[in-house]
Write a structure and sequence with these properties.
single chain, alpha+beta, 2 domains, 3 helices
Length: 105
């Protein structure tokens, strides 16, 4: 499920006979639950809106789902080989790595 770029996963609890979900693309905890699809969807939307309102009331910026930046630690020798490969391909190191990662997902 997705709402305002927040993405959630949903699982079914067979014992409680209820669906529960969690937003997975922030480090802040945003959860919701519902007994049926429409109820679950509305609970998701409400939870995201509650989160945004809570942040606003505290004067804090809500955590936005993924900026597109992340730190990657690799062996210096691999770093060098990637850099050389990028230069040989007339690409930036970032472009080479982004293309390589895109092929994997």
């Amino acid at each position: 499920m997705e709402y305002k770029n927040y993405i959630a996963t949903v699982e079914f609890d067979d014992d409680a006979m209820i669906f529960h979900g969690e937003v997975i693309n922030t480090s802040d905890v945003i959860t919701f639950q519902g007994a049926a699809a429409e109820e679950l969807r509305q609970a998701f939307v409400d939870s995201v809106e509650d989160y945004l309102a809570f942040c606003a009331a505290r004067g804090e910026e809500p955590e936005r789902p993924f900026s597109g930046r992340f730190v990657l630690r690799i062996d210096p020798a691999l770093h060098r080989r990637l850099y050389v490969k990028a230069r040989q391909s007339k690409k930036s190191l970032n472009a080479l790595i982004a293309e390589t990662l895109e092929k994997q997902v």
